[in-house]
Amino acid sequence: MNSETSDRDARLALASVVEPGSGQLVKEVAQFGPAYVWDFLLRTTKESALAERARRYRPRIMAHDMERHGLRFVVPGDPEWPAGLDDLTWSGAVGGVAGGCPLGLWVAGSGNLSRLMEKSVAIVGSRAATAVGEVVTTDLAAGVAEKGWTVLSGGAYGIDAAAHQGALAVGGATVAVMAGGLHDFYPAGNLGLLSRIRDEFVLVSENPPGQTPSRLRFLARNRLIAAMGRATVVVEAQLRSGARNTVAWAHGLQRQVLAVPGAVTSAQSETPNLLIRNGEAALVTCVDHILEAVEPLVPGAERPSEPPLPLDGLTPEEKAVHEAFPARSAMSVDELAYEARVPVRRCVAALTILELRGLAAPTDDGRWRLVH
Amino acid sequence: MNSETSDRDARLALASVVEPGSGQLVKEVAQFGPAYVWDFLLRTTKESALAERARRYRPRIMAHDMERHGLRFVVPGDPEWPAGLDDLTWSGAVGGVAGGCPLGLWVAGSGNLSRLMEKSVAIVGSRAATAVGEVVTTDLAAGVAEKGWTVLSGGAYGIDAAAHQGALAVGGATVAVMAGGLHDFYPAGNLGLLSRIRDEFVLVSENPPGQTPSRLRFLARNRLIAAMGRATVVVEAQLRSGARNTVAWAHGLQRQVLAVPGAVTSAQSETPNLLIRNGEAALVTCVDHILEAVEPLVPGAERPSEPPLPLDGLTPEEKAVHEAFPARSAMSVDELAYEARVPVRRCVAALTILELRGLAAPTDDGRWRLVH
Fold first, then answer.
1. Which of the ends of chain A has fewer CB neighbours closer than 10 A, N or C?
2. Which domains does chain A have, with CATH numbers?
């Protein structure tokens, strides 16, 4: 590959070698363009595992793998790109995963991803669901699917599988966003279900074929589910559960979070009950409650206007200064300039803009802090 | 009985012949004093069932009945009078029951009612509770009782019984407010439980011995439970349930309402789930959640300051004008004066006071409406 690499090919190459949610790299891609970053990565003399993977990357092998598995690569700006993902562009880190828009998505299946995502609700929860939880999930998924909403989930056992099945049972649409590559069906027990979703709709992954799921990839996958759904419904989840991570992403993206209450004697209801108690989720018990949360009030306003991103319209330099802030403490202009890799004089200018927008404020001792 | 009837005896007599929550009579008692109202009732030539019952009332029979059943009659101002009930003084009607402070309470048992009510939590719910609901109730009641809180409930089957039993099981305090008179134990299946509550703590009723429970008396009883508890916890209740009525009273009295979530497949959890969804109750799953809601923040501030009653300090005439307003529509001064039985000139003066207090406001067309 050389400097004539197309942006699409560069995104495909980059997505093939980086871990999902590599915030810094995504920022550099936004700033310099994917082809520039890819070429830089190939030419750098600094040794790194990433550079090593980049040098070993072979476009023709990727093209062959994709053809073999019936995959296409969808990038921002493509007609099939789901608009919801754009809200991830300047998202921060959640649960150890840097935010950022995916470089692209591998998609398998006959459906059109962006069209399927125009009206979609994520239904998520625990693998070790209770029988009641699975029945409730199937009913809720069937109900929203009947109303024309795509049921979005993660293709796992338990709540995920029940959500997909509920939609399929009524001839509704469903999409699975997988944590591993789309070279095979994982988990194996969901082979039939996932094949059917691919045949009738789409499977989606941020990871290249051949890549196996990992904890990091599960967490990064959760941000895609949160971003693509208009709301996220948590049916059952224990206290420590990936669903909490999905919820954190949904909050960060100003998506609605809904939760199904359960018996206080059921460990699988601890997370939904807690989310409701803390005001982090609205309580839902039936399909109508979900539809009430996602259906537009004004007919025709199919997609509610996006929440204004406070970073919209900032220059890359201003964004870099904003990103350089620690979450809770203050920093001097010199420290910020260093962290943001911006000359001090321009850092001062950027801080003025951030202050005008209410994003940052000077402290009494002459340092700066984020305004939350 | 004659014009020398003591206020206490007059309250006892009145409470023996009126239905609980007779708002108009309670207002007249507040305005003219119980002895005056009782004497008026005895002497009126206007025929009514109430006047007939008053003429048939025999103080010595009541005294005999009370002695036989070990009852005492507690009136406002008595050391044993629970302070929380005073908040009912100017309460409006809820669920077809006029508000108002009870004229007095029949009390049976060795405990001191006001002391038991200083720190009390009402735990209420359905008679037809699930096994899980009863276990959860027992655990919650035991937990708050262990922390020195009196568990207040209605002595019925199901959640009520489980609440009382939970408190007793850990040597805690519990009080039952009954809808019928305290001449026998109702329901019969709770004989042992109610006897024990009477022996160790107290049973309470607004109704005279001999009176059987009725729908109206159950509803009126609910307002006492709501008023006496610092918070009301709803564990299980179907959609149509007396618990909803207790909750309405608690809201009217600015008491906290807490609810235990349950499976969406359980009809017995429909009311708690709905209360939480509508923001009418905070979700609680454990003893700590309840204690967090009722324990004072400042040690020593055992009873949180009463919510200011907007009608405090109004003259009876001003209160009468305020009461004369319809809930949602406007009325002319003439209509209000007629309804309040107040001369028009004085009605205008009363409206000025109500306006100054932010309770009423003139409309554009010269009429008046309540400010909510």
1. C
2. 1-57 (no CATH), 105-294 (3.40.50.450), 316-370 (1.10.10.10)
